[in-house]
């Protein structure tokens, strides 16, 4: 998230999103070929992979990149990683995964934490002044935050879809293809702008390589490999921890800082991680 935020002044959000996906997808397909993993066959396999690509690649990365133009890297990461809440609800409804009292309390605290962290400065001021009418008129989130929450919901749906996908295709190969199928349209939209790569220097291209290899190929490959084998709620709950790194590094490298009420939200969110995951230890 920090690398993506630093790239945005020099390129377009959709070009960055496409470059995060397509090279990573090619890497995973090469890994799959090296490991002799089978390619998808039949309309059923390609149908599930295409649906997976729509939500978890095209919509998720598109909304994420657009949201980053109007939010900080740390705040954006925390909003993105509210997706375990949606995953838990969907997994309960679709796969009958249990939600006990600890998990339920953790998910509820996660919602509170996300709201506290995502509040725009204007709304925080209105709350501190107890101007409830002003809060209602201002709205809870700004546009960037709504983009991030839409990305979070898209990722949650993608996580749920991994089970029917791996029932008909190899998880590594399917993850690679979904990145390519979702990333190519993003690049297509991005290339309508004139030369979105023209202002990128060598360090920024190195950032794109890091973003694609570490942030997509390796991270996605491992996440969906384990998601295909384990409890979706407990695995997703662990992603609540990733924004803590984004907040730390965005403070160091991008000079982004949170208000005290947002730090309170961070603490509440960390508590939600513990509660949501303790039932599955």
Question: What is the typical, i.e. mean, pLDDT?
Answer: 78
**Strand residue percentage:** under 5%
Count of alpha/pi helices: 14
Q: What is the H/E order? A: HHHHHHHHHHHHHH
| Cα distance spanning the termini | 29 Å
Give the helix proportion (percent range).
over 70%
| Domains, number | 1
List unreliable stretches of 5+ residues.
none
What coarse outline follows from CA principal-axis ratios?
globular
Which structural class do you get from the secondary structure elements?
mainly alpha
Please outline the major beta sheet.
none
Radius of gyration (CA) equals 19 Å
Number of strands: 0
What does this structure look like?
With 281 residues, this protein is an all-alpha fold. It has one domain. The chain is 78% helix and 0% strand. It contains 14 helices and no strands. Helix 2 packs across helix 11, helix 5 packs parallel to helix 9 (143-168) and helix 5 (83-95) packs antiparallel against helix 12 (232-238). The longest helix is centred in the N-terminal third of the chain and has 27 residues, at 42-68. The radius of gyration is 19 Å and the shape is globular. It starts with a helix and ends with a helix. The mean pLDDT is 78.
């Amino acid at each position: 998230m920090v690398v993506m935020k630093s790239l945005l002044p020099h390129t377009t959000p959709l070009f960055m999103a496409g470059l995060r996906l397509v090279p990573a997808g090619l890497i995973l397909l090469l890994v799959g070929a090296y490991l002799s993993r089978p390619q998808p066959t039949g309309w059923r396999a390609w149908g599930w992979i295409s649906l997976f690509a729509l939500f978890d690649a095209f919509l998720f990365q598109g909304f994420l990149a657009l949201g980053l133009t109007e939010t900080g890297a740390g705040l954006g990461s925390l909003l993105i990683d509210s997706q375990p809440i949606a995953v838990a609800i969907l997994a309960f409804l679709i796969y009958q995964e249990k939600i006990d009292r600890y998990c339920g309390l953790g998910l509820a605290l996660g919602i509170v934490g996300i709201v506290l962290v995502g509040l725009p400065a204007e709304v925080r001021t209105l709350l501190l002044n107890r101007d409830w009418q002003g809060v209602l008129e201002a709205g809870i989130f700004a546009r960037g935050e709504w983009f991030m929450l839409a990305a979070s919901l898209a990722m949650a749906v993608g996580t749920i879809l991994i089970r029917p996908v791996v029932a008909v295709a190899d998880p590594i190969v399917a993850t690679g293809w979904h990145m390519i199928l979702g990333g190519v349209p993003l690049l297509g939209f991005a290339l309508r702008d004139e030369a979105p790569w023209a202002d990128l220097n060598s360090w920024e291209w190195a950032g794109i390589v890091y973003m694609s290899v570490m942030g997509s190929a390796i991270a996605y490959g491992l996440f969906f490999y384990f998601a295909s084998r384990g409890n979706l709620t407990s695995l997703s709950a662990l992603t609540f921890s990733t924004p803590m790194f984004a907040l730390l590094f965005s403070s160091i490298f991008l000079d982004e800082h949170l208000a005290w009420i947002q730090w309170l939200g961070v603490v509440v969110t960390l508590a939600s991680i513990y509660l949501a995951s303790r039932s599955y230890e």
